[in-house]
């Protein structure tokens, strides 16, 4: 079992580093082709942050591990809001943009409700529903593009590296291989661990796998908070959650039907509740304060206790 744990950790390392290399290489090629930085940020980089979730979910679905597929996405979204934003808010006050409060958080809540409705009606996410998610995903990309052009979305200032073409291609290939291997390692070892300890794949997907695939968001948000640059943390997390549902589940459903077990209804409701708590917690001060962060962490502690008892 120690060997399975080593494989799981190795899988997460490959996922995170592979996604980072893939994004860096793809963005470098895009810049050399003259594609605007705005378009790169809204497509390659944004989807790259969802690569760990996408790789794990698609791999799990194709292997028939439904508990890990849906559990990974729903668990990641719950973790992103209650744990990542909760920890960030405890460290420092987190500002929120008007567009995030008015449009993006309600949209995140809305598509999570749609996910619940799709899963509840026929106990699966099928091809047609995957197409619906992709249509919403394209509309969301269009919204981001318009908001960015109008100056409604902040971006982190980063020094652009001039990477040679050969190195960009190497990063793309190596990153892609690492993501594929990492997802296979993570899903296989998580399934083995679940069977060994008598835990359900749902529990593994909602906790261990979800945390592993959310590592990039966790590290980025906490690091930004410690450096005093947490102003766009909420928008980034909300955007990641939207991508997880529309892009990851939508893409997975286009490849194969994704079973939605009845037990996931409660988990999806918790994801909706997390979004509502985030929205309600930012009404008064137009941002997240420490008391709300503590409430979020306590809510996750209660949810985790519920998972342990089931």
Task: Write a concise keyword list for the protein shown above.
80% helix, 310 residues, A middle domain of Talin 1, two-stranded antiparallel ribbon, mainly alpha
The overall average pLDDT, rounded, is 81
Query: How many E-type strands?
Result: 4
Shape: globular
Provide the CATH superfamily: NCX, central ion-binding region
SS-derived structural category: mainly alpha
Helical content (DSSP H or I, runs of 4+): over 70%
Query: What name is given to the CATH topology?
Result: A middle domain of Talin 1
Strand order of the largest sheet: 1-4
**CA-CA gap between termini:** 23 Å
For the record, the count of structural domains works out to 1
How would you sum up the major sheet?
2 strands, antiparallel
Identify the CATH architecture: Up-down Bundle
Describe this structure in words.
The structure is a single chain. The two termini are about 25 Å apart. The protein is an all-alpha fold and about 300 residues long. Helix 4 (about 65-90) packs across helix 8 and helix 5 (about 100-120) packs parallel to helix 10 (about 235-255). Strands 1-4 form a two-stranded antiparallel ribbon. A two-stranded antiparallel ribbon has the order 2-3. It contains twelve helices and four strands, in the order ααααβαβαααααβαβα. The chain is globular and about 50 Å long. The protein has a single domain (about 1-310), classed as NCX, central ion-binding region (A middle domain of Talin 1, Up-down Bundle). Helix content is about 80%, strand content about 5%. It has helices at about 1-30, 35-50, 50-60, 65-90, 100-120, 125-150, 165-195, 200-215, 215-225, 235-255, 265-280, 290-310, and strands at about 95, 125, 260, 285-290.
């Amino acid at each position: 079992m120690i060997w399975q744990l080593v494989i799981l950790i190795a899988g997460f390392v490959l996922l995170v580093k592979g996604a980072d290399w893939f994004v860096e290489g793809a963005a470098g090629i895009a810049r050399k082709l003259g594609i605007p930085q705005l378009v790169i940020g809204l497509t390659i980089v944004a989807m790259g942050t969802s690569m760990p979730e996408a790789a794990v979910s698609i791999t799990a679905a194709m292997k028939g591990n439904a508990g890990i597929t849906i559990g990974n996405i729903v668990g990641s979204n719950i973790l992103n809001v209650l744990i990542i934003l909760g920890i960030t808010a405890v460290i420092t006050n987190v500002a929120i943009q008007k567009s995030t409060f008015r449009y993006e958080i309600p949209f995140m809540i809305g598509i999570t409700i749609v996910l619940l409705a799709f899963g509840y009606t026929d106990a699966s996410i099928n091809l047609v529903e995957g197409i619906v998610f992709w249509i919403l995903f394209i509309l969301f990309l269009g919204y981001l593009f318009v908001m960015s052009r109008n100056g409604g979305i902040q971006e982190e200032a980063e020094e652009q590296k001039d990477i040679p073409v050969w190195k960009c291609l190497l990063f793309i290939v190596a990153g892609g291989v690492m993501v594929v291997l990492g997802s296979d390692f993570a899903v296989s070892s998580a399934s083995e661990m679940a069977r060994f300890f008598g835990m359900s794949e749902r529990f593994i997907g909602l906790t261990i796998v979800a945390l592993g695939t959310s590592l990039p968001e966790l590290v980025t948000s906490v690091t930004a908070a410690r450096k005093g640059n947490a102003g766009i943390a909420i928008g980034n997390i909300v955007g990641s959650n939207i991508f997880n549902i529309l892009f990851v589940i939508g893409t997975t459903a286009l490849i194969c039907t994704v079973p939605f077990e009845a037990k996931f209804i409660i988990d999806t409701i918790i994801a909706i509740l997390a979004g509502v708590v985030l929205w309600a917690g930012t009404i008064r001060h137009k941002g997240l304060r420490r008391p709300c962060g503590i409430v979020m962490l306590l809510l996750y502690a209660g949810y985790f206790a519920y998972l342990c008892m089931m």
